[in-house]
Design a protein that fits this description.
The chain is an alpha+beta fold. 39% of the residues lie in helices and 27% in strands. A five-stranded antiparallel sheet has the order 2-1-5-4-3, sandwiched between helices. The longest helix has 19 residues, at 42-60. The protein is globular, with a radius of gyration of 13 Å.
């Protein structure tokens, strides 16, 4: 799976996305929007991906509600969306605080499904 291609396509899909990180099995990649000051170090991003992957496993165990589509958290300085990438991957996006997270999540779900099938 070409995570660099996926991250590049996602970050270009909406100006409110400031960072996108993806992991699939043992592979990971992240991309920041040029000109935007990063809120996290590389180590923070890698830890966030690992933590999000663990939480996603927990969400998948709640089958009574159906398959999870995305998760969103709102912080003081940003919003963050997590979307599954097939059965073994995850996409994590950091957004500007006033962004339309629902609209962006819908785009992310479509992109993730496109790459999950390949």
């Amino acid at each position: 799976m070409n995570l660099e291609k996926i991250c590049n396509e996602i970050i270009q899909s909406d100006e409110d996305i400031t960072l996108v990180a993806a992991s699939y099995r043992a592979e990971s990649y992240f991309k920041e929007r040029p000109g935007v000051k990063s809120l996290q170090t590389k180590e923070d991003i890698e830890k966030s991906l690992a933590d999000a992957s663990l939480r996603w496993v927990t969400r998948r165990s709640q089958r009574t509600l159906g398959e999870p589509l995305y998760a969103m958290a709102k912080y003081e300085k940003a919003k963050r969306i997590t979307v599954p990438l097939g059965m073994y991957g995850i996409i994590l996006c950091v957004l500007l605080p006033n962004s339309d997270a629902e609209k962006i999540a819908t785009k992310l779900i479509k992109l993730a499904k496109k790459y999950s099938d390949s």
